[in-house]
Amino acid sequence: MKGDNHLCVFEWRYGSQEMRHLFSRENIINVMKYVEISLVEALNDVGIAPSEAVKDVKKAVDKVTADMVYDEEKRTGHDIAALVFLLGRFSSREAARWIHFGATSYDIVDTAWVIIFNKALGIIKNKLKSVIKRLSDLALKTLNVPMPGRTHGQHATPITLGFKLANYVYELSRSYERICDLEKRLLLVKFGGATGTMASWGKNGLNLRESFAKKLGMRYHIITTQIAPRDGIAELVSSLAILASQFDRFAVEVRELARTEIGELWEARGEAIGSSAMPHKANPVTAERISGLSRALRSLVSGALENIVLWHERDLSNSSFERFLVPHVFLMTDQILDDMAALLDRLAYDPEKMRNDLHMTNDVVTAEALMNELILKGLAREEAYKLSQKASKIALNRGLKLWEAACSMDVVKKLLECSKLREILNPEKYIGLSKELVTEAVKYSSGILRKC
């Protein structure tokens, strides 16, 4: 780990260069410098600091580097104090008076956070939008591809591949909406001074906050203690953990359906090496990495919630964890999104294998349809259920199709025509309103993606 500044992050193998840059040492210090300049400008706007001070501090900013701040921090033991002292040394005596005037460290730290959050969430939303659109296109393309639905790991009633994918479109769209919604509670400037009362600025406090936030192009917290309320970060981490869990569910779907004995859906690896010992292997490593990173991300939620519980107007117990928490949450989410895009690039499926698997249990997956037909003919539900259950056992034990097994039972044959029953109990046709539901999910998603 380079440096020990408040927002520093480990050198990592995950996350895009774009996201890594946001949490780099240089960018973090640059954002903090930008916040400090904005404060001096706001002080000038309300008549506290002279305009010459603004010009002078802007010149000093270019002379202070990230390495200088971290070196100074080793001596001061305080990151923001190190930055402020260095800016003062490169400014005139008069200008130095107004650097950080009246502010507390977390007026700078929390405001720097939300500036970085804003850009980081922009990256995440753009990538998530792309993934949702690609899944939507694939769902529409495969809305008529029948396959077994599975509950408890066993064949349930038939679905289509498009229906399966449309469920992910819907869930991921809810996460997109969730992220957009949390921004109004998260992306707020923190400005209040030592315990949040604005005492240092006297009657100028409210006007100063207004000017400060306006220069940063953001809204502000109405009231804070020494720090911004930590529920915003907790909501952020929770929302990204939910998103990661949804991707994990999709990754598990691919991993499960790629099993040798299933082979309906898989991650095509091309010439990539699957195993150093077994040349025949084509492991779903991208899907597995999504699962692994999602576990790590979920594990951070409890800590983010714990950070809400601080003593009085604040203590420092949140700080050390947030230095680790926030960058890693964003970097893991970013990597998961990139992996999801790569997984979609490689995603392959076999409609014929899906169709064969749908029929592999002699069509007993349509036992519900048989039961419903018997109920419509006047039987009580319990009786219809037991007859359908018996027909299913006959089909499995004797190697008959469900319709054949049902027609071998006198009570069924008296109520239902075998020719019609053969059509009704065809799994490929018992897919309900899958097509309409896929279309509805894609339409819903398009509306969400247009909102923010």
How would you describe this structure to a colleague?
With 452 residues, this protein is mainly alpha-helical. It folds into 3 domains: 1-103, Fumarase/aspartase (N-terminal domain) (Fumarase C, Chain B, domain 1); 104-190 and 227-360 and 433-452, Fumarase C, Chain A, domain 2 (Up-down Bundle); 364-425, Orthogonal Bundle (Ribonucleotide Reductase Protein R1, domain 1). It contains 20 helices and 6 strands. The protein has helices at 17-22, 25-45, 51-61, 66-76, 79-89, 93-96, 105-141, 161-186, 205-216, 231-257, 285-299, 301-306, 317-346, 351-359, 367-376, 381-398, 402-407, 410-415, 418-424, 434-449; strands at 146-151, 154-160, 188-189, 219-220, 265-267, 347-349. The protein has a two-stranded antiparallel sheet with strand order 1-2. Helix 2 (25-45) packs antiparallel against helix 3 (51-61). It is elongated and about 100 Å long. Mean pLDDT is 93; it is low at 1-10.
